C-alpha cells in the first residue's frame, strides 16, 4: 500500500505485469494527453486503497510503442486489467472513479 | 509574438465569465474575454429563477447586456475559441483558433460543459477501437491510415488539420462550419476533405471502425473517427495546465472557496466546477473568481 503507481515499459512489461503474482491494472498514457493527466490522481487514490492486492502501473505509449500495439491500443488513456498474463477487462477514456473502482473490484 | 500582457484572461463568455470580467475590470485589472456567446448554455434559455428579476428574461439578451456592462469597465472581448493553453514563468499563454497568442497573469476558466458524444449507433461499442474524442491524444495511433473528424467548430477544424501530419486521408464531416475566417482560410488551403451539410448516421465495424455512414447516404471507408464537438473543453485545456479534476466524475475542475484551482493564478467558475447548472451559481463563482484573480494579478505585477 502507498507504493505509488509503478512505471513500466516495453522491457519490464512481461516481468512486472504479465508474470506478476497479483492482478495488475495498467494505465496507458502520454504526457501530452489532457484526459490522461486528469485520471492520474484517481489511479493514485485507488493504489492507496487497493495497492496490497493489485499492481497499479502506467505505461508511457510515447516511450514504449510495442506494448500498446500488442494490445491494439488506439486511444489514451486506456486502462487494462491483467490477471495471470491475460486481459480481463479494459476501459477507455477518463472515466469516473466509480467505474475504475468497479474494474479493480473484479480482480479482488 | 505575444500581444501585450493582460492581468486577467477569461475563457467563456457565459454568466460566470461575464461576472468575472465585470468584477476584475472594475478593479482596474486589464481584462480579456474569449469565447462565443452562442456556446453558452444560457444563449437559448429563458430565465425565471434569477434573483431580483421577476420577468422572464431571454438568455441571449442577458449575455448581450453583461458584455456591454463588462465593456463599460474596459474589458476586451474576442469572439474566438482558445485551442491551447500553456503556463510558463507564472504567465498563461493562450492560443486562439486564428493563430494569435495572448499572455495573461491569471486565467479564469468558465467555458461551461458541453456534450462530447455523438450518440449514434456503433459509437459506444467502438470507443478505443477507432472512435476517439481527442485528436491531440490519439492522432499518433493513425499514422498512414484514413480518418474522419466530425464537428462544426474550432476543435474539429484544428483537429482535422493536425491529423494531416499523421493520417493518409482526413475527412471533416460537418453540418455547417462555425469558425473564424482565418481558420476557414487555413482549412481551405489544406488537404482536408471537407464534407459539409451532413452528419454521421452510424459507425460501422466488427472489431474496429471500418466505415462511417453519413445522413446523406454516403459511406466513408475509414480506420478511425474523431468526435470533436464544439470548442475545446476542460479536459483538454485545463488538464494540460495540471488542474485537478473531481475524482468522482473526472469532469469538473476542483476549486476552493476563492475559486482557486491547485495551480497558482488559475481559477474556475460556473458549470465547469460542477452542479447545480444555475445562472445564480455561475454568477456568484464568477464574482469571486474575478475579484481574486484581479488581486492576484496586482500582487504579481507589484512583486
Summarize this structure as a short list of keywords or feature phrases.
heterodimer; A: 108 residues; alpha/beta; Glutaredoxin; 5-stranded mixed beta sheet; 35% helix; B: 303 residues; FAD/NAD(P)-binding domain; 7-stranded mixed beta sheet; 7 helices; globular
Specify the overall morphology of chain A. Answer: globular
Would you identify the regions of chain B where 5 or more consecutive residues have pLDDT less than 50? Answer: none
The CATH topology annotation of chain A reads as: Glutaredoxin
Number of helices of chain B: 7
Major sheet of chain A: order of its strands? Answer: 1-3-2-4-5
- The CATH superfamily of the largest domain in chain B bears the name FAD/NAD(P)-binding domain
What number is the mean pLDDT of chain B? 95
Mean pLDDT score of chain A, rounded?
94
User: Percentage of helical residues of chain A?
Assistant: 25-40%
Count structural domains of chain B: 2
> Largest beta sheet of chain A, briefly?
5 strands, mixed
Supply the helix-strand structural class of chain A.
alpha/beta
Per DSSP, the total helix count of chain A is 4
Per DSSP E runs of 2 or more residues, the count of β-strands of chain A stands at 5
Note the overall shape of chain B.
globular
Distance between the termini of chain A: 15 Å
Radius of gyration of chain A: 12 Å
Count of individual beta strands of chain B: 17
How would you spell out the order of helices and strands of chain B? EHEEEHEEEEEHEHEHEEEEEHEH
Q: Major sheet of chain B, described briefly?
A: 7 strands, mixed
Amino acid at each position: 500500500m502507498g507504493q505509488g503507481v509503478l512505471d513500466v515499459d516495453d522491457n519490464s512489461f512481461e516481468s512486472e505485469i504479465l508474470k506478476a503474482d497479483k492482478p495488475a491494472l495498467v494505465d496507458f498514457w502520454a504526457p501530452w494527453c489532457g484526459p490522461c493527466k486528469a485520471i492520474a490522481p484517481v489511479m493514485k487514490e485507488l493504489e492507496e486503497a487497493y495497492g496490497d492486492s493489485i499492481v497499479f502501473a502506467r505505461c508511457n505509449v510515447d516511450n514504449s510503442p510495442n506494448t500498446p500495439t500488442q494490445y491494439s491500443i488506439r486511444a489514451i488513456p486506456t486502462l487494462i486489467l491483467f490477471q495471470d498474463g491475460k486481459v480481463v477487462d479494459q476501459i477507455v477514456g477518463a472515466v469516473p472513479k466509480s467505474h475504475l473502482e468497479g474494474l479493480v473490484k473484479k480482480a479482488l | 509574438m505575444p500581444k501585450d500582457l493582460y492581468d486577467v484572461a477569461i475563457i467563456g463568455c457565459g454568466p460566470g465569465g461575464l461576472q468575472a470580467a465585470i468584477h476584475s475590470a472594475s478593479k482596474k485589472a486589464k481584462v480579456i474575454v474569449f469565447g462565443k456567446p452562442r456556446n453558452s448554455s444560457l444563449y437559448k434559455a429563458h430565465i425565471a429563477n434569477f434573483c431580483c428579476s421577476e420577468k422572464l428574461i431571454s438568455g441571449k439578451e442577458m449575455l448581450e447586456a453583461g458584455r456591454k456592462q463588462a465593456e463599460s469597465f474596459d474589458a476586451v472581448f474576442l469572439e474566438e475559441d482558445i485551442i491551447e493553453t500553456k503556463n510558463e514563468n507564472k504567465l498563461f499563454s493562450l492560443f486562439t483558433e486564428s493563430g494569435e497568442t495572448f499572455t495573461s497573469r491569471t486565467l479564469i476558466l468558465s467555458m461551461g460543459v458541453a456534450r462530447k458524444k455523438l450518440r449514434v449507433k456503433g459509437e459506444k461499442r467502438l470507443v478505443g477501437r477507432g472512435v476517439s474524442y481527442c485528436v491531440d491524444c490519439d492522432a499518433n495511433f493513425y499514422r498512414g491510415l484514413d480518418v474522419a473528424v466530425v464537428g462544426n467548430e474550432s476543435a474539429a477544424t484544428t483537429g482535422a488539420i493536425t491529423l494531416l501530419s499523421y493520417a493518409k486521408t482526413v475527412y471533416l464531416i460537418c453540418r455547417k462550419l462555425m469558425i473564424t475566417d482565418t481558420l476557414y482560410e487555413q482549412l481551405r488551403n489544406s488537404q482536408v476533405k471537407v464534407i459539409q451539410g451532413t452528419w454521421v448516421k452510424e459507425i460501422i465495424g466488427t472489431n474496429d471502425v471500418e466505415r462511417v455512414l453519413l445522413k446523406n447516404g454516403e459511406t466513408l471507408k475509414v480506420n478511425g473517427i474523431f468526435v470533436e464537438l464544439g470548442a475545446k473543453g476542460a479536459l483538454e485545456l485545463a488538464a494540460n495546465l495540471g488542474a485537478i479534476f473531481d475524482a468522482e466524475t473526472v469532469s469538473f475542475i476542483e476549486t476552493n472557496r476563492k475559486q482557486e484551482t491547485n495551480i497558482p493564478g488559475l481559477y474556475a467558475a460556473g458549470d465547469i466546477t460542477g452542479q447545480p447548472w444555475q445562472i445564480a451559481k455561475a454568477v456568484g463563482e464568477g464574482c469571486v473568481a474575478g475579484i481574486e484573480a484581479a488581486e492576484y494579478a496586482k500582487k504579481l505585477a507589484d512583486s
